[in-house]
Design brief:
Strand order of the largest sheet: 5-2-1-6-7-12-11-8-9-10
Number of domains: 2
Structural class: alpha/beta
Order of helices and strands: EHEHEEHEHEHEEHEHEHEHE
Strand content: 15-25%
Helix content: 40-55%
Largest sheet: 10 strands, mixed
Oligomer: single chain
CATH architecture of the largest domain: 3-Layer(aba) Sandwich
CATH topology of the largest domain: Rossmann fold
Length: 281
């Protein structure tokens, strides 16, 4: 019999800020989570040294978004723009956090964006960032920073996108009885809004094991007062899993990269699913 799970304590939530639509969705989700958990919210703005190096090159030009004209990319102008963006990020963090009475701090870092975020996230329990960064449109798939966070961060990572709530709506939790899936379920229960519906997707290649796994999950859920709906699914490929989850409901997907899912299935699922994803470590 598995040992009882300890309630996961979340004290600090870090959120990456760059004033993009995905970043604003991340901040809203992180702030609401921090308010529910009485956690501290840490906003992180990274001055991208790649942009600064490019601005210093003699042949680098800026192409304006809504015209065909080009201008020399001026390094001093870019420095001023980064300071302006940092101020906007700070003000957005303060407005959002103060509206929810959340303790908050703001940090400005300089360097390669993924590396700086990974460094800052070592002090947090959860890192929240957008599935994509700045872009003319909210493209499908993961941006480079999100991919780095999934591969390198040892912390739980929440990937957000505009138009979705992180926990006020339905939650989809993948459960296969592994320690990773038990941690994912416990984290989902810790962060969920009490009015959320939990869709618990029990994955097992052996149908006769599904009932046992459901009982194990019920033990973890206990008397949380949250509505739970169980779904049984044999272990399938990534595309089939994405298709099945889309048929259940659109909400926050909670899973772990330490489940029994093959790595290629995990990667395809996280990349292709349309909803926010919470990867629990």
């Amino acid at each position: 019999m598995n040992a009882p799970m300890k309630t996961r304590t979340i004290r600090t939530i870090a959120v990456a800020l760059d004033c993009s639509p995905h970043s604003k969705a991340s901040l809203e989700a992180a702030a609401k989570m921090a308010a529910r958990l009485s956690a501290e919210l840490v906003g992180i703005f990274v001055e991208d040294t790649n942009l600064l190096r490019m601005a210093g090159l003699p042949f680098t030009e800026e192409i304006r978004l809504y015209s065909s004209t080009t201008t020399k990319l001026d390094e001093a102008q870019l420095e001023r723009l980064l300071r302006l963006q940092a101020r906007e990020a700070r003000e957005l963090l303060e407005r959002t956090a103060e509206a929810l009475t959340v303790r908050h701090t703001f940090r400005v870092m300089r360097g390669m964006v993924p590396e700086q975020l990974m460094s800052a996230a070592t002090e947090a329990d959860i890192l929240v960032l957008g599935r994509s960064g700045r872009s003319p449109s909210c493209r499908k798939g993961l941006g480079s920073t999100a991919r780095t966070a999934l591969c390198e961060s040892k912390r739980t990572v929440l990937l957000m996108r505009p138009g979705f709530s992180s926990a006020a709506g339905p939650l989809l939790v993948l459960f296969d009885g592994s320690e990773g899936s038990r941690n994912a379920l416990e984290t989902a229960l810790t962060t969920a809004d009490p009015e959320s519906t939990l869709h618990l997707v029990v994955i097992d290649p052996e149908p006769e094991s599904a009932e046992k796994l459901e009982q194990e999950a019920q033990t973890i859920v206990g008397e949380r007062g949250i509505s739970v709906e169980y779904h049984h699914l044999p272990q399938v490929g990534g595309r089939d899993l994405v298709r099945y989850l889309r048929m259940i409901d659109s909400g926050l997907l909670v899973l772990s990269d330490r489940m029994n899912l093959p790595e290629e299935v995990f990667n395809e699922l996280v990349s292709e699913i349309d909803s926010p994803v919470l990867v629990v470590r």
